[in-house]
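hey so i finaly got around to running the thing on Aldehyde oxidase GLOX from Solanum lycopersicum. pasting the sequence first so u can double check i didnt mess up the copy paste, my clipboard has been acting weird all day
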Amino acid sequence: MAIKTSLVLWQLHLLLLLSCHDLNLANAAGGKWDLLMSNIGISAMHMQLLNNDRVIMYDRTDFGASNISLPDGKCRNNPKELALKIDCTAHSVEYDVSTNSIRPLMVQTNVWCSSGSATSDGSLVQTGGFNDGKLMVRTFNPCNTCDWQEMGDGLGQSRWYSTNHILPDGSQIIIGGRDAFNYEFFPQTASTSNVFNLPFLRETNVPREENNLYPFVFLNVDGNLFIFTNDRAILLDYTTNTIVKTYPQIPGGDPRNYPSTGSAVLLPLKNLRSQKVQAEVLVCGGAPKGSYLRATKGDFVGALNTCGRITITDPNPQWTMETMPLPRTMGDMVILPNGNVLIVNGAATGTAGWQIARNPVFSPVIYRTDNPSDSRFEVQTPNAIPRMYHSTAVLLRDGRVLVGGSNPNELYNFTGVVFPTDLSLEAFSPSYLDVEFANLRPQIISPDSHLKFTYGQRVDIRFTALGLLNRDLIKVTMVAPGFNTHSNTMNQRMLVLPRGIVRQVGRFVYEVSCVFPKSGSLAPPGYYLLFVVHQDIPSEAIWVRVN
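ok and heres what it spat out for the 3d tokens, dont ask me to read them lol
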């Protein structure tokens, strides 16, 4: 009898262990790297995923010749160009995720260190750049044969190292940049045709270092803009050019923006039916004060290993500081479909700039947003390619993260430098894509991709799951793909949709009813990736258009 009782207890213990294991399947450290292409022809300095599952990338036109020719014997003839006046090579490409192939694109003017945003109709609007590109607006429509279209002098102010954000009405705001202490709108209207002065940008500009370029900008749930530059932030009512809140300085007072170059995300928005939706911002990495000038003299200071987290909707917001397992400057922060954040790329010493960083950080880190504060960071499998200055990373529809770029050199330099120009493209697959979790991975079967939905609309989502489904651990997330460059992913945004009960409607088939956000202040109009997530394991997404 004692043996039988012991056996039963052992079996119960085993079942409990397996149950706990299932609840934490996707929490095991790891992930894996795959080299997708060794040479895409350019160094991917800027990236944007569009709703046809193709990623637009570009670097700059004044590098000289790239490693990929323009098609059909085309050449760019630009007498204002600082490198090749006649250039028959491409400085922008379109990467097709499904075929793992590249199509060369043609930009006419210099797009170096520019900014952009996907629009409400799914096209890409890109603004500014260098030299003859500093006042330019360029558009790209997602189609098989489309190419860049340029609008000369579409801006009222030169924009170099600026930040774009889509607004609740579908227009864009373009903020800051080098010697640009103001903001403007695109497209312009009768009431928004001016450039609007923003003294905060001048106040956070450090002589000879700046440390306020590529501001971190997030649309708050009240429709105002959270703007972080250097070591502090404001909440701006852009419609009246009024600062409605000034946030406390981030503890330590060290700079987080270019060229010290940390990164930032708006954490997933939840409880969207609540009268007061909470919004939190996470700012990670960067470099201590004075690091940029010291790096230009060969003294590479250790990067910051801290993150600041703040609830920007609180009446009395305060920063909470956390310590990363690895110091990092020039890191990229990508919101994953399950709401966690991947921190990838960058260096452990120095800053952004030409050849002034050392010690690549090869290991990504996953930040588990909802974990207790002492267990949020988890180091992942390292890659083998240094991703230094001018590296990029964006989320793909299948849950992988596309990683490319790295050119800390003024030209394309492949030999004789500490960190050669890199033209490769990789994918990082978080552990939720491991084959052992296939039975728990949902697969969306309806609605179809690319359907339109209105604010507040209810939708029934059907999905399959072959393994045992824990209905309490199902959530539906919606991610706005961002425009990534210089450790700043503009417009990146995740919402966790309110849902009803999960019902079984067939063998391995389930249905859950969800409600889309109620306004453009929560979710600016446009295309989103919609995922069903089970025990932190996401489905492949479908595209939804919300307006």
